[in-house]
Structure formats: structure tokens, C-alpha cells
Amino acid sequence: MSTHAPLLLFTMSVWRGLDSDVMIQHPGMGVTDVFAALFPSLIFNPAIHLNYAHAVLPMKDGLPKLRGFPSHAGGSGEHVPE
């Protein structure tokens, strides 16, 4: 795996064997995006919806829905109704 920072806002980790991005770290927000499709045996257990104010397909799943990002990640932390 190799890591590079094309912009100061995030760091990308690339799996050399696939020449594909595996994850993106957003240090200023305390968030890491992992491309779960690369790990088919991974059991995905979502905990929250981010940027739900821009949702195209509404989800009624009982999970909290934030308008943008959590306050600890620089967002408003504002919840929107399901």
C-alpha cells in the first residue's frame, strides 16, 4: 500500500496490486472513508447517515441522519427527520 496527499485536506491510500484507492483519510474532520466494495467478506454495520439533507433516496432505517457532518468533524451536527 502506498499513501499520497494530492491536496492538503486528505490523504489517499492506494493498494498497489489493484492500483486502486482503498481509503481516504480526512484528518481535519476525523473521518476515514474506506471503500467497502473492495472487501466482499466485510460485514458492514452502518451507524449514521451523513449529508442526509441532500439524499436522493430516503432511508427509513432508524439510524440518525445528519444534515451535514457531526460537530466534532467541523459540521453543524444538526439532525434531520427520517
Nutshell version of this structure?
The chain has 82 residues and is mainly beta.
Q: How many strands?
A: 4
**Helix percent band:** under 10%
| Cα separation of the termini | 39 Å
- Note the main sheet: 4 strands, antiparallel
Structural class: mainly beta
Number of domains: 2
Question: Would you write up a description of this structure?
Answer:
It is a single chain. The chain is mainly β and about 80 residues long. It folds into two domains: about 1-40, no CATH class; about 45-80, no CATH class. Helix content is about 0%, strand content about 30%. The chain is built from no helices and four strands. The chain has a four-stranded antiparallel beta sheet, with no helix packed on it. A hairpin with a 4-residue loop joins strand 2 and strand 3 (about 20-25). The chain is globular and about 40 Å long. The model has no long low-confidence stretch (mean pLDDT about 80).
Any descriptors?
82 residues; mainly beta
Question: What are the SSEs and their pairings?
Answer:
Blueprint (H helix, E strand, L loop, with lengths): L1 E6 L2 E6 L4 E7 L4 E4 L48
Antiparallel strand pairs: 1-2, 2-3, 3-4
